[in-house]
Amino acid sequence: MRGERNRVPFNVGVAPVYRGYRVAYRLRDAAGSVAVMRVSGADLTTWLPGEYQLDEQVALPAGLATGGYVLDVAVLDPTEDEPAIDLAIEGRRDDGWYAVSEVTVSR
């Protein structure tokens, strides 16, 4: 039509995060207490929207009790150890962490 321009969306969701958010993992024991927490070395500023898989080894403390644990994940604020970003997955807990799996620690 005469006088109309083609409209293009301004933001189509392809920008990475610009702050130094950190991916973190933790194990919760049967009582719900945090037994171990580790921060990944992943650089989220290089990630574009989409699915990503992290393959990392997490060292557990020598004195960690054997048994079942819940594995949680969160994206932490750059300056605090608090979850800062809601993820597009199920399992969000009231504290902002996401329960993603169950693991068994054995000797």
Short description:
The protein is mainly beta.
What does this structure look like?
This protein is mainly β. The protein has a domain at 22-47 and 64-105. The protein contains no helices and four strands. The protein has strands spanning 22-28, 34-39, 67-76, 98-105. It has a four-stranded antiparallel sheet with strand order 2-1-3-4, with no helix packed on it. The radius of gyration is 19 Å and the shape is globular.
Number of strands: 4
Total helical segments: 0
Average pLDDT value?
86
Q: How large a portion of the residues is in β-strands, by DSSP E?
A: 25-35%
Query: In percent, how helical is the residue content?
Result: under 10%
Strand arrangement in the largest pleated sheet: 2-1-3-4
CA-based gyration radius: 19 Å
Tell the overall outline: globular
pLDDT below 50 for ≥5 consecutive residues: which ranges?
Answer: 6-11
End-to-end Cα distance: 73 Å
Question: What topology does this entry show?
Answer:
Layout: E1 22-28, E2 34-39, E3 67-76, E4 98-105
Antiparallel strand pairs: 1-2, 1-3, 3-4
Sum up the structure in keywords:
single chain; 107 residues; mainly beta; four-stranded antiparallel β-sheet; 4 strands; 0% helix
